[in-house]
Amino acid sequence: MPIKTQNNLPAKAILENENIFVMDEDRAISQNIRPLKIAILNLMPLKEETEVQLLRVLSNTPLQIDIILLQTASYQPTHTSQSHLNMFYQTFDDIKDQKLDGMIITGAPVEFMDFEQVEYWEELTNIMEWTKTNVTSTFHICWGAQAGLYYHFGVRKIILPKKVSGIYRHRVNNRKVQLVRGFDDVFLAPHSRNTESSPEDIRTHEELVVLAESDEVGDLIVMTKDGKQIFVLGHLEYDRLTLDTEYKRDMAKGLNPEKPYNYYPDDNPDNRPLLTWRATSDCLYSNWLNYYVYQTTPYDLTKIR
Ligand SMILES: CC(=O)SCCNC(=O)CCNC(=O)[C@H](O)C(C)(C)COP(=O)(O)OP(=O)(O)OC[C@H]1O[C@@H](n2cnc3c(N)ncnc32)[C@H](O)[C@@H]1OP(=O)(O)O
Ligand SMILES: N[C@@H](CCO)C(=O)O
């Protein structure tokens, strides 16, 4: 660490309570290194929750990170207060003349729409196109990953017969690749989605490599061979209770959801879920920041190609 954000960002206080923001500004300045510039295009409706989750995983490295929070301009979010957005968020227009070391494009609950129906699709595709020349490595999550695979590689999105929700077992296909260095042969990771990116389309594209997959729910980690684009089709950033909240929300709506798989002790929703994916999540984000961002990015950002 440390992560540099505006001091009054609520996520900062939450993570300080977890002892995450451990280095003070004076020490950070005395280190005399260039902080990494990482933008988070936050497409999730519960933006503050996502901020906490992503800042937590990004903070598990010795690197200094400057965070830029981005919202869409062509779609105005409705579940995050305007004052929070005004205070902490910028739009693509504000930063498009900069170069960045890394960018994260989050998930979004728009799976059932065709990509082109999503109100900010044109803006998102402009951003994705821009990342190819202005960002060292871009990390896409869940719907953001499906959208990136579709935009960059034409990988189709397929609606599943029923929602995938739970903690699934995955295997690593090639542990020598740096993104999964330090992973165990098998590991657990959350998924929460009603769609998947076509496994056939992914496998027929020679630029794409599948690094981790599950017999039950398919692909989890896909990347381009050059590491410039990472696609994570699950939610390793999720908190202990995120799937629980989604399940109980859908119960309350009368949607009769299935219990998240392999999640509650004794499969009983009254029991506190065990956190079984945090070490993997920390390892994945640290590997990304280290090998695909820090070791790859030029000291002079204008030299990104
Ligand atoms: C597949 C994945 O990537 S998983 C990630 C998504 N998961 C989550 O977001 C989990 C948390 N979300 C939730 O629990 C719910 O979405 C809630 C409770 C926040 C809101 O649910 P509802 O009120 O039923 O949905 P609502 O119709 O208001 O739209 C929800 C979100 O869908 C998105 N959305 C809806 N319509 C559109 C549209 N036409 N274009 C673009 N985005 C849209 C927006 O992100 C919207 O939230 P926002 O306006 O705050 O950005
Ligand atoms: N994670 C999402 C899936 C829907 O896009 C939810 O259950 O809210």
> Could you name the CATH class of the largest domain?
Alpha Beta
Principal-axes geometry comes out as globular
Number of strands: 11
In the CATH hierarchy, the third-tier topology of the largest domain is known as Rossmann fold
Q: In what range is the share of β-strand residues?
A: 15-25%
The total tally of domains equals: 2
> What can be said about the biggest beta sheet?
11 strands, mixed
Order of helices and strands: EHHEHEHEHEHEHEEHEEEHH
Bound chemical compounds: acetyl coenzyme *A, L-homoserine
Q: Which range best describes the helical content: under 10%, 10-25%, 25-40%, 40-55%, 55-70% or over 70%?
A: 25-40%
> Based on the structure given, which CATH architecture of the largest domain is correct?
3-Layer(aba) Sandwich
- Mean of residue pLDDT? 93
Indicate the low-confidence ranges by residue numbers.
none
Polypeptide structure, described:
31% of the residues lie in helices and 25% in strands. It is of the alpha/beta class. The chain has 2 domains: 1-30, no CATH class; 32-297, Class I glutamine amidotransferase (GATase) domain (Rossmann fold). Strands 1, 2, 3, 4, 5, 6, 7, 8, 9, 10 and 11 form an 11-stranded mixed sheet that branches. Helix 1 crosses helix 3 (47-58). The protein is globular and about 50 Å long. The mean pLDDT is 93. Residues 44-46, 75, 77-80, 107-111, 118-120, 142-143, 192-193, 246, 249 line the site of acetyl coenzyme *A. L-homoserine is lined by residues 109, 111, 192-194, 246. The record marks 192 as: Important for substrate specificity. One of its GO terms (biological process) is L-methionine biosynthetic process from homoserine via O-succinyl-L-homoserine and cystathionine. It is found in: Cytoplasm. This is Homoserine O-acetyltransferase.
